[in-house]
Amino acid sequence: MAYREFNFDGLVGPTHHYGGLAEGNRASVGHRFQVSHPRMTALQGLEKMRVLAGMGVGQAILPPLYRPRLDLLRGAGFTGADQQMIEAAFRHSPSLLSAAFSASGMWAANAAMFAPSCDSRDGCVHITTANLISNLHRSLEAEETADLLKRIFPNFALFKHHPPLPKTVAFSDEGAANHIRFVGPEGGLGMHLFVYGKEYFGSNPVTRYPQRQTLEACQAVARLHQLPEETVVFARQSSGAIDAGVFHNDVISTGHGALFLYHAEAFADGLSVVDRLKKVFEETQHRSLCAIEINEFSLADSVQSYFFNSQIVTRSDGRLVLVAPAESEENPKVRSVIAGLVTRADAMIADVVFLNLRESMQNGGGPACLRTRVVLNEEERRAVLPQLFFSEQLFDELTSWVKSYYRESLSLPDFREPALLTEIQTALDKLTQILELGSIYSFQK
Questions:
Q1: Of all residues in the chain, what percent carry a pLDDT higher than 90?
Q2: b/e map of 102-131 (b: 16 or more CB within 10 Å)?
Q3: C-alpha distances in angstroms, 399 versus 16, 337, 433?
Q4: Which residues are catalytic?
């Protein structure tokens, strides 16, 4: 049965702002409490979806989670009516208030890990929602995301939904941002690279920034998804990369099909990792993996440009396209490397598209952060809520919706405005009508 990869992009929520809540994410921290532009951010995200769909890439959307999570404030000891709690939190704990309003669910690469049915021993699509315990604002998402994914992928005979891993540092799980699936051109059984920063039951180097993903979480997901051991490779991030601001593997390496692009300093034991990947790929795919090491620019350039957070996609003619952030084009060293990838004699990448995702980028999320990849056969695709698959009509409706309901600018003091809560609920209520989702948000029940 033929399989196709779909990009499920997170739709930017109306409370998108710069809270600077993600330690180790330099763009996020660097723009802390600056003025954001939710309307522009959402429109840039929709334009990315439109461009990819226009190439013939499978494209769908994930609706935003409802924010604010005022239960966070109440659980932290704030009392009174909603607006009273917001006002008190603004005065006494602005970062906690920011966490309650965070729209970070838009970065769908962290939503969950998916394994296609052609890879799992039981022939089902496996879905494990990430627990995201490394950051307070993201840890709030797990149960909501799990419920949302069950609604989007509702046939439990085809889709096996696993709960988030136990909420302990031993199983710290950041989702698909630390995972790459490789597969040959014929499709079928794929190979999986899981990348981790630390071993809970082992020794770890001291790093300036948090080592978010654990080996134990990677191993647990591989077992839950019933992936054959001979198709799985585990690799450790280098401590130098983490300290440079590489908080996820998708900031320092990327892959698609039989192509793997990685920075020379991505892994703790880079030569061994690549050798293992090549060996496993050849054994499972019966062809060679095209692994390209990049050392022409520094770790700092990698983080600044987010080159490795580009998406590699297969367009309708079967050729590969690199979808990169505009920042990669603006960095001369990175731009030169990209040009070389397209013009080299054995080039697998046929073209490059640069996209303006500036608003998301300033909060620490590039093209690949905004999507999670889901590989489906035709039966499985038909079992997914059909109204979530991208179309020009849906693009027009959502564009009009964003322009009608999203604020042009937003900053932390704006959360004190009583009108904002009503605006958010009105916007999301309208969205559920557009997407025919029913009452999925707490305020609707």
A1: 98
A2: bbbbbbbbbbbbbbbbbbbeeebbbbbbbb
A3: 16, 34, 15
A4: 174, 248, 369
CATH class of 3-67+102-444: alpha beta
The confidence score (pLDDT) of residue 388 equals: 98
Measured distance CA(275)–CA(10) in Å, rounded? 34
Kindly list the domain boundaries of the chain, sorted by start residue.
Answer: 3-67+102-444
Angle, nearest 10°, between helix axes 392-405 and 418-434? 170
Residues 6+ apart with CB under 8 A from 375: 3, 4, 5, 6, 114, 116, 118, 181, 190
* Cα–Cα distance, 8 to 114 (Å, whole number): 11
Rounded-to-integer distance, Cα 124 and Cα 383, Å: 13
- What are phi and psi for residue 58, nearest 5 degrees? -65, 125
pLDDT grade for 186, boundaries at 50, 70 and 90 = confident
pLDDT digits over 343-396, tens only?
998 999 999 999 999 999 999 999 999 999 999 999 999 999 999 999 999 999
Residue 81 exposure: Cα atoms within 13 Å on the Cβ side: 5
Query: Within 13 A of 3's CA, how many CA atoms are on the CB side?
Result: 21
